[in-house]
Amino acid sequence: MLRNILFWILAVIITVAALGYQRKTGPTYPADGSFALGGKTYEYSLTRSHDIGDAPVELVIPDPNVRGALVFKRFKVSEAWTEIPMQRQGDRLTAALPHQPPAGKLEYFLRLSQGEETITVPSNEDIVIRFKGHVPVWILAPHILLITLAMLLSTRAGLEALPSTGKPRLYAYWAAGLLFVAGMIFGPLVQRFAFGALWTGIPFGWDLTDNKTLIAMIGWAVAVWALSKGRRARAWVIMAAFLLLLVFSIPHSMAGSELNYETGRIGAAGVGR
């Protein structure tokens, strides 16, 4: 009983940590930072993912003497930068990036000035934002819930398989089943609504989100096959659990769907963008 409680606690901690790391390091998480202007320090949080419509961009800068401009262009397209002035609304400077087709991307930065001082935010690189279609909650919610449960039960199965007296079979079957429903059924539906394609992984493309789901599914399919044959499958269960944690610790949406503006086709993005 004590071991069972301990393994569940460890499984929850590992799963939450992996999900938190994935979200925090992913290319859709807002770009946060700070900058100095006019002897004052300000913080910013700039969006890197947006659904339908123009994407609002804003900074909290109470000083009315600070002016700003939003500078942007289409990602990986040789074209001139577009600059639009930011409007002041109380203590905020606001502007909006124009809506793009699903998987379309813009790169942008802010140009701020006060008196003779002018800076860019961020100072070291442009922000890349990806647009996507609206995913209905009846698809997105089960996908997130089931993939979280799959990770939890996968981790629990791996821990259960560590001692020679462990019995990981039931946990393994549940983990594989939930992963299949979440990743291979609801996952493509999310992809379809967000980017207009059910599957952009192997053999049709190199979308990392789809491919890492496929790799994890293959790992668990092998583990379940070994268990069904009555073989000593503890090692396979451990490897499948570790593989799932490994691939799902890759930041979400990294090397995900990206619109090629020249061809009009959606493919996999470069890693990090």
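That was protein one. Protein two is written in the same sequence-then-structure order:
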Amino acid sequence: MFESVVPLPILIGAAVVDSINPCAIGVLIFLLAYLTKSAKKRHKMLLHGLAYILAVFLTYLLAGLLLLPLIGSLGQLSTTAYIVLGILVMLAGLLEIKDYFWYGKGPSLALIPGASQRIKFYASHISDSFVSAFTLGIFVALVELPCTGAVYLAVLSMMSLSGTSFGNISWLIIYNLIFVTPLIIILLFFVQGVSASAIEAWRKKHRKLMRLIIGVMLLLLGGWMLAYTLL
């Protein structure tokens, strides 16, 4: 019933690596900085943050459920599709590793162009309505996919080999719960009094290492995809 090409340990490892993506963490920190000015009370900060994180979780889960059969259909047409996806995943890994040595120089996996300004605009207009934080989460999850989606794409590609099964849907739920866990931890630290600037300083200090870890994982996943397809 839980049949899947992706073993659970590999799924968990990929999700943990994906969850430390500096793009996803950076946007949450930006939101928290605005909540300091707008929400004031801790319980409102917590609820706004949880609404945002819930939206990210649901959007990524829905994206996975939509992409899983689509990728499977491409693979049924030709194994070349899986080979191309595997190569793209490995190229994404090389870009991430490049950023460990030369951060910010040359091409990088980043937010959709112009998205940063829109995120700042929407975050600055968050009201007492939790719907606004939820809507921001949906928007952010969509525009940050070029930055955070490579690991997810690799996992979905391998899952698609066994179709849209109950096991794969369960694996997707687990994956996305792990993906948002660091966001929940950061939110709890923030509510307990750790400043957004302190969290941002920590992110900047470790972002190169985060990208290196993600890059190595992408190379491994891409290589696994190619080996599974060709052997």
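The chain has a mean pLDDT of 82. Keep this in mind for the problem set.
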